[in-house]
């Protein structure tokens, strides 16, 4: 579900129906219960598309969700899209990739080729695929920045996205992935099927002053609007410096040369490396990443090499590895969550 919308306290905003499988359903099967629920949901929600997600219990008993959807489709107004997402098929990042891939068939292809200079239109992919609980604020900053540069955001995959916006995603001239953990596969498939290039995929996301400047300059270079981005960079740097002068002049010297362990995902962790080292004068001694990051490891390697750091790096770090590594290294501080604290 995370692949399609925000995690919100008010779940009444989300059109979700559940079969509520019990022990008897696991033994005897629950096909009839699922059929009834799909029919009721079709009448109640009046949706254009309905994703039928098989979770752990349905996957374990081998429920044929794809066959059931094909059987019911003639009687259902909504387009049924089956997804088998049992926990043993992968982790949360794999689930997000599956959810994104299921959207691909709904994106219409352009029937005619553009002539002349291409318009500035982008899709934003996987803004929620990270550990940041305020990712929606980062997404809003990106959208506002693009708007100020007169770059149109066609579709966000996916947050408050209408079916019409999804269909028109093929109108974009570039894709931007706002995650170092999820979205690369989807963007590359979209590049193959819809000829929309993936941009800004070789640098860290805009975390910290220097990374934000690099990201904005790379964005401007792609669309050939370098002169438009300079005022935004200047304004942002002045705001950060002014804030630090007011609040952090006593803090930064206290943590200078502080040896740090970072426990995060790739989206946050890669960007924090340069921010901690160059801007806050701390030393990232240990980097513990929750995901495997097969598509973004090269970005991390380039960052460490350019900064001259030899940090200990662990990918797909589970709880045991995090605990053992933090016990092994005598760091001064840990940047992570309450889990690492306790």
UniProtKB/TrEMBL annotation:
Domain Nitrogenase/oxidoreductase component residues, every copy: 12-342
Superkingdom: Bacteria
GO molecular function: oxidoreductase activity
Protein name per UniProt: Nitrogenase-associated protein N
Organism: Nostoc sp. P6620
């Amino acid at each position: 579900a995370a692949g399609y919308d925000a995690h919100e306290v008010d779940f009444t905003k989300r059109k979700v129906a559940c079969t509520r499988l019990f022990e008897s359903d696991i033994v005897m099967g629950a096909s009839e219960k699922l059929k009834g629920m799909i029919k009721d949901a079709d009448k109640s929600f009046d949706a254009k598309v309905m994703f039928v997600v098989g979770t752990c219990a349905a996957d374990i008993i081998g429920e044929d969700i794809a066959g059931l959807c094909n059987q019911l489709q003639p009687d259902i107004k909504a387009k049924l899209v089956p997804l088998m997402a049992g926990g043993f098929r992968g982790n949360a990042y794999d689930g997000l990739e599956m959810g994104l891939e299921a959207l691909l068939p709904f994106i219409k292809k352009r029937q005619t080729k553009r002539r002349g200079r291409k318009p500035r239109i982008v899709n934003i992919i996987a803004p929620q695929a990270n550990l940041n609980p305020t990712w929606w604020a980062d997404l809003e900053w990106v959208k506002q920045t693009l708007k100020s540069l007169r770059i149109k955001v066609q579709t966000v995959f996916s947050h408050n996205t209408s079916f019409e916006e999804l269909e028109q995603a093929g109108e974009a001239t570039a894709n931007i992935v706002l995650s170092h953990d999820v979205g690369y596969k989807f963007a590359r498939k979209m590049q193959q099927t819809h000829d929309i290039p993936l941009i800004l995929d070789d640098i860290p996301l805009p975390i910290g002053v220097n990374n934000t400047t690099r990201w904005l300059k790379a964005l401007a270079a792609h669309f050939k609007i370098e002169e438009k981005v300079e005022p935004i960079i200047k304004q942002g740097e002045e705001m950060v410096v002014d804030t630090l002068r007011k609040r952090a002049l006593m803090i930064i010297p206290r943590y200078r040369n502080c040896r740090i362990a970072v426990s995060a995902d790739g989206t946050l962790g890669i960007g924090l490396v340069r921010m901690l080292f160059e801007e806050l004068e701390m030393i990232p001694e240990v980097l513990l990443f929750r995901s495997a990051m097969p598509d973004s490891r090269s970005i991390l390697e380039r960052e460490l090499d350019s900064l001259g750091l030899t940090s200990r790096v662990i990918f797909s770090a589970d709880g045991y590895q995090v605990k053992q590594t933090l016990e092994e290294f005598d760091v001064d501080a840990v940047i992570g969550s309450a889990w690492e604290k306790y």
